[in-house]
């Protein structure tokens, strides 16, 4: 005996990802995680300007690791994005002292920008329409014929 499942429209993986991405501060979390990853990579740079502060440079590894973690938390738990983004920008600024000038400025800028994007993201808003689009819609509404019942009422 075969049990058949009724056909339902399947979204492609690209459309499913686009829907998932639209419901969260995707770019903010991604930039914060990438900034932390970049700072972690510059910790292992074989340059003479590498600084190690504290016990074997523990803070230099801890802060960017927390930045990566906060970036992922912003992606997968967007309801707490305000706390994560404020903590993320403070950690990004802290890497200035502990992690080679914030990963030679690049990681610091990525982390701070991502945190600001996540902080400013507002869920469930209608997309903004531009002035041109509103004008086109008004012209199209003016050109549209009036319903038949409305003509005889006047």
UniProtKB/TrEMBL annotation:
The lineage of its organism: Bacteria, Bacillati, Actinomycetota, Actinomycetes, Kitasatosporales. This is Uncharacterized protein. Keywords: Membrane, Transmembrane, Transmembrane helix. It comes from the Bacteria. Coiled coil: none annotated. It comes from Streptomyces actinomycinicus. InterPro entries: DUF6114 (IPR046096). Residues 127-154 are annotated as: Disordered. The keyword Transmembrane helix applies. Residues 139-154 have a biased composition (Low complexity). The chain crosses the membrane at residues 24-41, 53-75, 82-98, 104-122.
């Amino acid at each position: 005996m075969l049990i058949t499942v009724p056909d339902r429209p399947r979204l492609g993986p690209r459309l499913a990802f686009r829907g998932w991405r639209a419901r969260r501060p995707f770019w903010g979390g991604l930039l914060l995680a990438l900034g932390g990853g970049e700072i972690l990579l510059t910790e292992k740079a074989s340059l003479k300007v590498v600084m190690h502060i504290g016990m074997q440079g523990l803070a230099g590894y801890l802060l960017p690791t927390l930045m990566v973690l906060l970036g992922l938390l912003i992606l997968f738990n967007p309801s707490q994005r305000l706390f994560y983004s404020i903590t993320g920008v403070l950690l990004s600024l802290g890497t200035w002292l502990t992690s080679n000038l914030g990963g030679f400025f690049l990681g610091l800028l990525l982390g701070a920008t991502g945190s600001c994007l996540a902080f400013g993201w507002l869920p469930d808003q209608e997309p903004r329409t531009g002035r041109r689009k509103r004008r086109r819609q008004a012209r199209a509404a003016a050109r549209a014929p009036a319903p038949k019942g409305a003509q005889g009422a006047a």
